[in-house]
What we know:
heterodimer; A: 446 residues; alpha/beta; Rossmann fold; Ubiquitin-like (UB roll); de novo design (two linked rop proteins); 3 domains; 5-stranded mixed sheet; globular; B: 333 residues; alpha+beta; Alpha-Beta Plaits; 4-stranded antiparallel sheet; 14 strands; 20% helix
Amino acid sequence: MGRKLLTEHINVEGINTFEVYRKHGGYRSVEKALKTMTPDEVVEEVKKSGLRGRGGAGFPTGMKWSFLAKPEGVPRYLVCNADESEPGTFKDRQLMSKLPHLLVEGMITSSYALGANTSYIYIRGELLYVLRILEKAIAEAYANGFLGKNILGSGYDLDLHVHPGGGAYICGEETALLESLEGKRGNPRNKPPFPAVQGLYARPTVVNNVESIAAVVPIINEGGDEYAKLGVGKSTGTKLISACGHLNKPGIYEIELGVPVEEFIYSDEYCGGIWKGRELKAVVAGGSSVPILPKELILKTAAGENRLMTYESLSDGGFVTGTMLGSGGFIAMDETTCIVRNTWNFSRFYHHESCGQCSPCREGTGWLEKVLHRLEHGHGHMEDIDLLVSVAKQIEGNTICPLGEAAAWPVAAAVRHFRHEFEWHVTNAKEAAQPGAVYRANGVLV
Amino acid sequence: MAKITFDGVEVEVPDGTTILNAARQIGGSIVPPAMCYYTPLKGSGGKCRACLVRVAAGSAKDPRPMPKLVASCVTPVQDGMIVENTTSEQVLNVRKGIVEMLLINHPLDCPVCDQAGECDLQNFAFEHGVSTTRYQEERRTFEKIDIGPLIQLHMTRCILCYRCVYTANQITDNRVHGVLGRGDAAEIGTYIENIIDNDFSGNVIDVCPVGALTDKTFRFKSRVWFTKPVNAHRDCPKCSGNVVLWYKGKEVLRTTARKDQYGEVKEWICNECRFEKKDTSDWTIEGPAHIERSSVISANHYELPVLNQSVVADLPESTQRELAQNPPLKLGS
Lengths: 446, 333
């Protein structure tokens, strides 16, 4: 098993309290950064580490930090995006509820690097119990002098706040998150201006995922170069993967990037294979918004190489034969899964969560859902399959924020790789409409 | 100043100008359509995606093309930018898609809609859309809501451009007008069925690109192309008093603010001018309002208008200048 940088002590009794966390080496990164490093040196370490944003887009964190505008006399903000609500992704929830101090520590170090004196953790509204855990951890950090005025005598001040959202998926989009944090309706903003120039309260702001901020802690403790030694190529370090679906051992795994997908699914160290001895049918590798891949393509790339759990390897072949690492929400589906039904379910989610601001997404997500509903329930036509692709294409790339793409990609990919199932739903409409009906190559019901 | 090339035409505009406004300085048929952007309203734009254009070169410094189409109404120009609108096949195709999206939940009740004839969505669909639909599902419908005694909201027709929300926020007091709900269930609301009660509330009717917000004093009175627009003004203590009166015979059926060629209100008018002054004697008539030749309203038949020269000297300066630029026909000419 690879090294664990974030979750090494996750099962230690009482690790959510300040004393135990401190005993296990907690808050070292704050001491190191504030006492021995300048903010620019911290940014430089993160750049060297090659850390890529863990929220889904995979944009290099150090680079994002260096884009932050730094006008004189204007406050800057660091906002932690803890609005994790992508179906299939549940890594941040676990990290925050078990290791709240890791996030607090990461926030202090990162805020210091960015020169932010007020930072926010925007947490998903449904995770109220996690909010309470975090608030307790923050209170402990204040009591021990790691937050507040003049932290560790360094002259650096930081206030950290936790803010619960209302439970809308769209508020995980960074500009919608900022709107919501400002107390407005969570509608994504038009970009430019980007948050690095005009973010929270029109001030320069960096928005980072929980896991990215937590990863700053081992990077500062061990040095960026050490961190970069883990992983493969440009995918450095470790990544939390929340594995779910038809697996023997679903759960959250901290993997060193570069583990082969086949090993991740079948080895006992990780997911332990597909449950009930069934066959793997398809995998959604990075949360519901990334393209679904059939077994053949998720285990091996189109060129026949082993697919690895890295940003590059999973996206090998573009969207024709590849997918994305995304946020690490790994959904495995066995042979009894109906892809049409599953796609409809995803579509239903995006229809429900579209903010309704821009027209392609507002109207298109509903349209996709309705057509898929029709197909799944045996009222579809052959033209509907091409209609799905066409509508998805009309949404993709034409919206204000990436939710449009997130709604379009899974549908387009499902049709691309499982067209025969959609066709079967049209030709065998009566059968397909029955509950639990699944396409089999020979047309037999399960 | 920034120099940009828009559909092959070069134009120089101040820094910070949006692509759309740069295109409007060129004018003509290359100007992208705008369904939600409204110059007088701060923060509007970027929502309908009708004005998407392709940026073939980002700037002189960084001549890479932008990866996605951008909303021209909110994207500022950069020096050396090359923009493609009507010259790009991709843009035209996407625009067709936008029309389709805007129409799938629109009731298409133009034959009974008061906005027909001066409807932005109608014009947009006519110019850029296709004549058939691939949408078979049930359309979204809402109950009609009265926002006070003068304005009716018919959400079924709404395209959620947010113009009225910005208008209510920016030019009227007491914010009660906003968007409720999410996705395709989002609706304009005055939580809950409040009345927008102030002197400038009627302006939300003018900014509405479709027939979602209508003037209750005008509903079902007449098709707009049977009425004749006439510029008029009065001494109003609250607003500029510069309006357009819409006549049918000798009767003033409705009063609206004056709009420019892009359908944007020039000066906001108050509710008294809009709803209460419906007699010719309340107004000083300036002459026929300019209507684009492309508009169905211009298809009605004007009698030769009379410009009362003794009145001209008393007109506001802005109106005099406008008259000098677009002189009405003189009697006997």
